[in-house]
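Final report, Chapter 2: Outcomes

The project's central promise was a pipeline that accepts a single protein chain and returns its three-dimensional structure in a standardized token representation, suitable for archiving and comparison. That pipeline is now operational. To close this chapter, we reproduce one record exactly as it appears in the project archive, with the input sequence first and the structure output second.
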Amino acid sequence: MQNPKFTTDYILEKIRKDKKDPRKQFMDVAARYYENDSDIMKRRRFFIGNNNEEIEPKRLSNSKIAHPFFAKLVDQKVNYLLAKELSIDCDDEKYAEHLNSVFDRAFMRRLRCLCTEAILCAVAWLQVYYDEAGNLAFKTIPSREIIPIWKDGDHLELRGVIRVYKDDPEDKVEHVEVYDDHTMTAYTLDGGQLKAESQHAHIQLEENGQRIDADWGRVPFVLFKYNAREIPLLKYIKPAIDDYDAITSDMSNAIKDAPNSLKVVRGYEGQAASDTAQESDRSGTTKFIHNLHTLGVAFVGEGGDIDIKQVTLDTNASETHLARLRKDIYDAACGVDAQDAALGNTSGVAIRLRYADLDMNCAAIGNEFAASLESLLYFINIDAAARHIGNFDGLTATFVFNTDVSVNEAETIQECVQSKDLLSQRTILANHPWVKSVDDEIDRIDEELGGEDGREVGEVSPYGAISAAPQYAPTPSAGEAPATPPSTTEA
């Protein structure tokens, strides 16, 4: 039975407030900016006519140059946080094996979508359900469609979820689904009228020809946050992006519209030779602007002379301001600008310092996502128990996001070489920037050397791939004999 609090009037009031919620409206703005459809694309250029009407000159340039800063910054965070596979630390071997089967590559792809949605909209929603084959499944629901009903102000425990959506954007009828701890009630919304269609338990399965109804005991949705305050990234950088777009568009218009020279004709005032009869009614300021931008000629009624004025564009101030805006955008978004000259051939320490803001921001996102994944374990454990895979209640798992830290490869390789007498070869291989899988690399070493140095097959080489690369070996000092590898023959 549905929560008695969720009456028809209650649901309609929630939907009415949601449609006016500025946070939901800003989600649409973020989606536009991610597609590089920023506000500059709506720009108009016009002047005021004699009757105070807005006139858009057909021959006047109207550049609309949008810059995909937002998309680059969103993708940068997603790739930095999720480029590598998620690590799951669990003391129970059977539980760890089961979790690795659930959080597979398909789930990681979905997690990337959730991360993108969370950065755009501040929140992302994952629905838990069973597919037609009866398997546990997950689905990303657009944040714009979800109206959460919370039990607490910290948004940690759901009382219910209202989902409002259309099958087609052109449809007038909207579908409404209301979820509580036990049921899902479906409605249609048409002309402000809410009509109940059906109600059933969260889970509907068939076994031996019989229908089985069950529920999760909890609202089957999990919230993924961009940050604790649920503030979207675009809030921090939209004004700077809009200013950058406007200035570059203005510069483009100036370059296109400004003639190389301006001809000032004294002693004549009237209609230009190329003016048509249709344009003959232009007068005053309107006609002056038309002539100036169309012909590059200004007719002034005094004296009797022709003067050619050279027109030069000074863009230094604009370029300086654009450079400052670009820096402000990346700083406010905790991003790394690939065009920054400081990212040249610098040391690993300098690179890590440059990536500090991005690393801290992604670490915060990772903490939020790890908490959400831990909430998801509730549903995974129930499914595992129902399938007799195991009773994992009370067991814990830790999720570790292996961020893709940028490093100075030459410096890191040299550090690996210098550590060969201090660390195991497995540890060195794990930190080598060219090694993706330590076990695979050890197998390749075994295959190449074939045990010819006295090792058993499968035993790690005492030199490994590090000392096998002479170009990275330390150079002996003057008068010092080259180092020789230790003998593998037993005394």
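Archive annotation: The chain has three domains: 8-35+68-232+360-400, 259-312, 411-472.
This record, like all others produced under the grant, will remain available to the consortium after the project formally closes.
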